[in-house]
């Protein structure tokens, strides 16, 4: 085709973000990955068409009302037009687009920005009048707006049809017939047409929706098909294997013919050969159907697409494919299957679920995610104005994560968008089988029964397994977050665990990934877990949970005995599941023993809210004579303090004291915890020193130098922070540190060194203290002790603030806030937020300073107790600074807003910029 005859060659270059509007052959609009084919109402669709036909004209509103709603009362018409404009603007100018970039409206008129769109009807007319007739004919996909019968549409339709007949006559077409209307996806640059199929081979199935999020996989598969003769496209049911295979088969130009063979209803090689013969449209009655098919395929360079092959792998299907490849040397086979065919030379192309969005990401990043893009595209089939917005993007991201990126699950959920919001769907996922099923009419291409619901798709794979494989897969549902071969063998009593796991992964029911230790770790999608867990008898499920708890308790105890500083993070989901199941199965003592075995891990790396919740429930459910109850209460008390629940921390510390009774070590530890919590919350030495003296005496009696040193170090902290005697505090702390080093307690000695660094600052040696704090931080982070690093980072902010280095102080407090937020440590997060206020004001950023200070006052009193006189004086000073810079009226509004803010909002405000020297918050509240 000459350039003049190619409509793409003469089409103006499209601007970035430009809408391509199709009016010929059907109404559609496309912009990048967004395609609109459904509109909220016919008048809104007609409004878009009218504006697109005349984009440079300012359309009077009254004229549009009469065209769209002839005879309507003018006031009602104005209301309808306003609603239509608002809806059309949401469709054409989604979040992130500049307002007014596409739709230009004033009080009298309405028009489209001509630079923001390209209309095929206008382009057809332009090419025709310029004499480029063949290019014009190529654009004329059908009559204007079929199905619209408005008078103005019929006038325009007749005008363009007449022009089409003239163009056709000019190029010598005797009886011009307008082409059949094409699918809406043809608004985009046309794809290569598939080559003609040999022997009238079955046409590829047609979809009325577009493929979303598989562009990279499509390119790789295209290249692989050219190189390899047998490619198996494998993956979980519902991942889009068939759709990708069809899309690739439509695009390829590497073959003379393409043949698609649906095999879902075939369960043996004989019917499989018959289905191939029918797809190739070969005559029946041959003595050897397989030979007939092989002979036909040998004639041309053919791509044979065998869809849903998994049930044939062990039923003679693989041998049939081997025979065809041997007899037809130019044949290439693309099989979609949930299991590999097991043939020599086979190349497996594993199709994973779509990438999931980060639930904490911003609106634009969420909108670009493939899972979200697919959801939005399918939701618009039932709600044409659906889009990602500032109000729904977080819920939408969380929903797509819950759906685990499985395209079928996403499509089924999106089909419910008429009745459910994304937030509603999150709640409805508790009943996955009801939400994730196809409602309403089938798609135009028909939908296989196994894909009418996600449950049916999983059941299809389940039925293909042998009974032993079914039992093993069901048993694996006890795990969370992945497991190793050794764990599966121990928990599920399966001697051949490695072989069974490999087979289930080959069947696309599991996936294996190398972990941080280069060992293979296996994972199961949550929706598969929900299904297979239901297949377990209750007694068997309970026994598996008990074995699961025993395995992870032994693992934790073993790591503690070896002196490992941390538990493997990859195993924490299984630990959380073990805690939960222990409480649910009325074995709270197991949960407490597991928690105590992991105490060092919780103290250094923080504890997830769910784990803390189950530990607290175990404490409440455990009998009073459970010997681990007192030390568990002591541990949970300190974890609650870090979590930001001061009153609960005090209550658990006092309960630990009651439960410890006359056991010296348990009581000494509980006394230290109670003293630490009381000191941190109230900054008072009242009643604390006697408790610590008792703790030292009991610890010596019990032969527990770690607890004795802890009591001594706490005494040093009181002398330092309450009595302000840095020299005497240094003596006590140095003695405590020597005891810790002698007992081999490196972490505890490091905590005491932090206190000694504070002594340096109190004695006026700020630069020495700063140097020492930086070194301590590096040590902590190198050891993975992020909890201890928090206090050290905050201390650097305190020192910088004392040196009037406001920007450097803010940088330290922001780092502290970020790390505290990541590790769920609300105690140190409270310090960081509090300390930011005054420094922000001193950097002349009064609004964020006021917001943070107002929030921090409320947050601290809600979580840790009343403010003392020094704290109130500090807050008043920040308020005076803010008042002076904003004025009393604006300052009051800022303070009121700060009190209403949520914690996540405040953290987002603080972390918006963490670079030194930029605008920052902060000054120093010394931790107690």
Q: Report the CATH architecture of the domain at 3-170.
A: Orthogonal Bundle
Q: Please identify the top-level CATH class of the domain at 3-170.
A: Mainly Alpha
- Describe the sheet with the most strands: 5 strands, parallel
**Shape, please?**
flat
Low-confidence stretches: 1-16, 174-202, 440-447, 914-928
CATH superfamily of the domain at 3-170: Winged helix-like DNA-binding domain superfamily/Winged helix DNA-binding domain
Spell out the key features of this protein.
about 950 residues; alpha/beta; Arc Repressor Mutant, subunit A; Rossmann fold; five-stranded parallel β-sheet; four-stranded mixed β-sheet; 43 helices; about 5% strand; disordered N terminus
Brief overview:
The protein contains 43 helices and 15 strands. The termini are far apart.
Describe what this molecule looks like in 3D.
- The chain has about 950 residues and is of the alpha/beta class.
- Among the domains are: about 5-170, Arc Repressor Mutant, subunit A; about 200-350, P-loop containing nucleotide triphosphate hydrolases (Rossmann fold, 3-Layer(aba) Sandwich); about 365-455, no CATH class; about 765-910, Serine Threonine Protein Phosphatase 5, Tetratricopeptide repeat.
- Helix content is about 60%, strand content about 5%.
- The protein has 43 helices and 15 strands.
- Strands 9-10-11-8-12 form a five-stranded parallel β-sheet, sandwiched between helices. Strands 3-2-1-7 form a four-stranded mixed β-sheet.
- Strand 2 and strand 3 form a beta hairpin.
- Helix 14 (about 370-380) runs parallel beside helix 16.
- The radius of gyration is 35 Å and the shape is flat.
- It starts with 6 loop residues before the first helix and ends in an 18-residue tail after the last helix.
- The model is unreliable at about 1-15, about 175-200, about 440-445 and about 915-928 (pLDDT under 50).
């Amino acid at each position: 085709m000459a350039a003049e005859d190619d409509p793409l060659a003469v089409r103006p270059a499209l601007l970035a973000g430009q809408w391509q509007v199709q009016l010929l052959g059907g109404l559609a609009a496309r912009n990048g990955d967004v395609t609109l084919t459904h509109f909220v109402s016919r008048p809104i669709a007609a409004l878009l068409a009218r504006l697109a036909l005349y984009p440079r004209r300012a359309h009077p509103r009254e004229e549009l009302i009469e065209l769209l709603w002839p005879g309507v009362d003018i006031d009602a018409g104005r209301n309808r037009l306003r609603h239509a404009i608002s809806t059309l603007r949401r469709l054409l100018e989604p979040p992130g687009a500049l307002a007014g970039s596409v739709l230009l409206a004033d009080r009298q008129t309405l028009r489209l920005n001509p630079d923001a769109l390209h209309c095929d009807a206008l382009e057809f007319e332009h090419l025709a009048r310029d004499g480029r007739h063949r290019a014009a004919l190529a654009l004329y996909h059908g009559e204007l707006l079929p199905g619209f019968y408005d008078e103005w549409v019929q006038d325009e339709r007749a005008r363009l049809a007449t022009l089409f007949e003239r163009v056709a006559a000019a190029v010598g077409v005797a009886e011009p017939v307008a082409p059949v209307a094409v699918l809406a996806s043809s608004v985009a640059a046309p794809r290569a047409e598939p080559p003609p199929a040999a022997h009238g081979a079955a046409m590829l199935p047609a979809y009325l929706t577009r493929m979303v999020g598989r562009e990279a996989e499509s390119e790789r598969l295209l290249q692989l098909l050219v190189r390899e003769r047998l490619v198996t496209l494998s993956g979980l049911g519902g991942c889009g294997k068939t759709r990708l295979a069809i899309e690739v088969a439509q695009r390829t130009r590497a073959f003379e013919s393409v043949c698609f063979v649906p095999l879902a209803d075939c369960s043996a090689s004989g019917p499989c050969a018959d289905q191939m013969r029918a797809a190739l449209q070969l005559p029946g009655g041959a003595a050897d159907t397989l030979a007939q098919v092989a002979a036909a395929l040998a004639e041309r360079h053919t791509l044979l697409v065998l869809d849903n092959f998994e049930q044939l792998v062990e039923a003679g299907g693989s041998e049939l494919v081997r025979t065809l490849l041997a007899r037809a040397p130019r044949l290439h086979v693309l099989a979609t299957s949930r299991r590999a065919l097991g043939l020599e030379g086979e190349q497996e192309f594993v199709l994973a679920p779509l990438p999931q969005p980060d639930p904490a990401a911003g609106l634009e990043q969420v909108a670009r995610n493939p899972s979200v893009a697919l959801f939005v595209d399918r939701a618009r089939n039932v709600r044409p104005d659906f889009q990602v917005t500032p109000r729904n993007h977080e819920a939408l991201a969380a929903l797509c994560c819950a759906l685990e990126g499985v395209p079928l699950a996403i499509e089924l959920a999106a089909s419910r968008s008429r009745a459910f919001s994304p937030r509603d769907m999150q709640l409805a996922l508790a009943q996955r089988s009801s939400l994730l099923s196809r409602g309403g009419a089938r798609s135009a291409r028909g939908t296989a029964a196994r894909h009418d619901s996600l449950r049916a798709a999983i059941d299809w794979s389940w039925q293909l397994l042998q009974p032993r494989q079914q039992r093993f897969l069901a048993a694996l549902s006890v795990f969370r977050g992945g497991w190793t071969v050794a764990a599966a063998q121990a928990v599920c009593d399966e001697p051949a665990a490695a072989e069974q796991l490999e087979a289930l992964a080959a069947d696309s029911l599991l996936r294996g990934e190398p972990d941080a230790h280069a060992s293979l770790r296996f994972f199961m999608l949550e929706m598969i877990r929900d299904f297979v867990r239901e297949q377990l008898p209750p007694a068997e499920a309970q026994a598996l949970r008990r074995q699961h708890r025993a395995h992870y308790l032994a693992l934790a105890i073993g790591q503690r005995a070896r002196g490992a500083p941390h538990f493997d993070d990859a195993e924490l989901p299984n630990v959380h599941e073990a805690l939960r199941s222990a409480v649910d199965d009325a074995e709270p003592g197991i949960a407490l023993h597991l928690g105590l075995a992991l105490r060092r891990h919780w103290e250094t790396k923080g504890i997830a809210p769910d784990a803390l919740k189950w530990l607290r429930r175990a404490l409440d459910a455990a009998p009073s004579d459970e010997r681990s109850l007192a030390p568990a209460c002591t541990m949970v008390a300190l974890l609650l303090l870090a979590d930001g629940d001061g009153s609960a921390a005090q209550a658990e510390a006092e309960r630990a004291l009651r439960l410890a009774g006359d056991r010296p070590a348990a009581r000494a530890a509980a006394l230290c915890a109670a003293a630490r919590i009381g000191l941190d919350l109230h900054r008072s030495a009242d009643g604390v020193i006697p408790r610590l003296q008792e703790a030292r005496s009991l610890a010596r009696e019990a032969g527990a130098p770690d607890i004795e040193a802890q009591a001594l170090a706490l005494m040093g902290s009181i002398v330092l922070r309450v009595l302000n005697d840095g020299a005497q505090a240094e003596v006590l702390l140095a003695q405590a540190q020597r005891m810790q080093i002698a007992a081999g307690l490196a972490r505890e000695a490091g905590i005491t060194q932090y206190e000694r660094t504070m002594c340096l600052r109190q004695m006026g040696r700020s630069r020495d203290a700063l140097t020492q704090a930086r070194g301590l931080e590096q040590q902590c982070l190198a050891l993975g002790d992020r909890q201890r690093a928090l206090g050290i980072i905050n201390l650097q902010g305190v020192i910088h603030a004392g040196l009037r280095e406001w920007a450097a102080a803010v940088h330290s407090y922001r780092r502290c806030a970020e790390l505290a937020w990541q590790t769920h440590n609300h105690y140190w997060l409270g310090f960081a937020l509090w300390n930011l206020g005054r420094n922000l004001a001193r950097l002349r950023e009064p609004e964020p300073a006021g917001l943070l200070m107002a929030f921090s006052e409320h947050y601290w009193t809600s979580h840790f107790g009343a403010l003392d006189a020094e704290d109130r004086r500090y807050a008043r000073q920040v308020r005076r600074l803010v008042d002076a810079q904003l004025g009393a009226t604006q300052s009051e509004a800022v303070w009121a807003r700060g009190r209403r803010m949520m914690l996540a909002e405040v953290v987002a405000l603080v972390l918006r910029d963490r670079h030194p020297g930029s605008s920052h918050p902060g000054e120093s509240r010394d931790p107690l």
